[in-house]
Amino acid sequence: MTDNHNDIRVLASADWTRRNFLRLAAFAGGVAALSINGVAIAADKGDLAEKARSLKGDADLGDTLFIYSWADYANPDVLDAFSNGAGPRIEIATFDSVEAAIAKLEISGGSAGYDIVVVGDAYVEQMINRKLIQKLDHSKLPNLGNLRDELHNLPFDPGNQYTVMKNFGTIGILYNNTVIKEPIKSWDDFFRVGASEVASHRLSVLNDQPSVFGLVFWREGKDYNTGDEKRLNEAKDVLMKDLIPHLKAFDANPVQGLLNGDYVLSQGYLGSSRHIFEQDPDSYTWVYPEPQCVLWSDHYAVPSGSKSTDAAHAFINYMLDPDVAAAEVAHIGYDTGVKGVIEKLPDDLVRKDMIVFPEGVTDRLVYQKVEGSNPTLRIQIFNELKAAAARN
Question: Where are the transmembrane segments (predicted)?
């Protein structure tokens, strides 16, 4: 820890994301443990296997189901129960970026041997347009109706023709309420308090260009995905003037910095921010900021060259069962969008409202899009912001 205001830090590379946090959490807690925040969750693998067996019916699903996803992004007990009940052994290959996954699918003509691929919302349209994923057969997904109404007909895939929600989350504000006494409710408050005497040089933002540009666009309630050069440069000017002079660090996981006093005000991912309340439930406040923020989501899709489409549909349908979804949420800490999940989680679970969004929050969240957002200019500006922060 240092008191030098010129010590601008970039903590965690751009590769440190919410999923890297999941990977570390799984390593620390043991991937076989079905618990979250230290609260054990009863999940009988036999019961889950029986669900898989009953959902499968008489169908022959083959011997193996190949899934392409992020590392440590599923509950092993849930996967084992599907294999025990429905038959196919699950093999998971992992990628480190969606761009790498898309490239591999393109080279292989839409398969690469996989039957399910996990796709981020920002890339769904791109994969549809490139014919890398196929339309789903809704007759094989009777549990699709278990998804909450607001998670159907998403703008990048109307009618869930190609994808089904896996998990989702958001970004928000986390602050030390023993230091910052006034309530923070919006991104405008974030900028104003961040420039104040109590928070200046004790402020962190995510090390992620869309999230930093979002500070401006979400505050204004304007197009978060704009690729307009004039608008992006105007956002740069705002950030150079109102954020950079007060910034302590670009930090993808600010929990430790808040706990040790380096920060009193941070932008953070929902999932990783929850863990501060395990250690100190009273001194920190989480905010779903107004008027806008991002809704990131990951989705199951079936590659166009899948050889086991029946097994792929059976697995997706299984994951939409409320008991299965609750076991999944308990392991990874992000909502699945399946109705009734929160009622199945323990009453003493820390901050349930940070797993399943409170009513009304989803209505003000927006999706990220890659195509048309001028990523080259955005990355250039983001690098300029980090260089300016280092000089302050």
Answer: 21-43
Chunk the chain into consecutive blocks of 10 residues (it has 392) and report each block's average pLDDT, rounded to whole numbers.
42 44 38 40 73 84 92 90 94 85 85 89 91 96 93 90 95 98 97 98 93 96 94 98 97 92 95 88 97 94 94 96 91 87 80 85 88 90 95 82
134: CB partners within 8 A, 6+ apart: 162, 302, 303, 304, 306, 309
Give the count of domains, the chain: 2
CATH number at residue 162: 3.40.190.10
Q: Compute the chain's Rg from CA coordinates.
A: 21
Residue 194 structural domain:
9-15+170-294+365-391
Same domain, 281 and 301: no
**What is the Cα–Cα distance from 49 to 77, expressed in whole angstroms?**
10
Distances (CA, A) of 354 to 51, 109, 131: 28, 39, 36
Residues 146-179 as b or e (16 or more Cβ within 10 Å = b): bbbeebbebebbeebebbbbbbbbbbbbbbbeee
Sign of the Cα pseudo-torsion (276, 273, 29, 13, in order):
negative
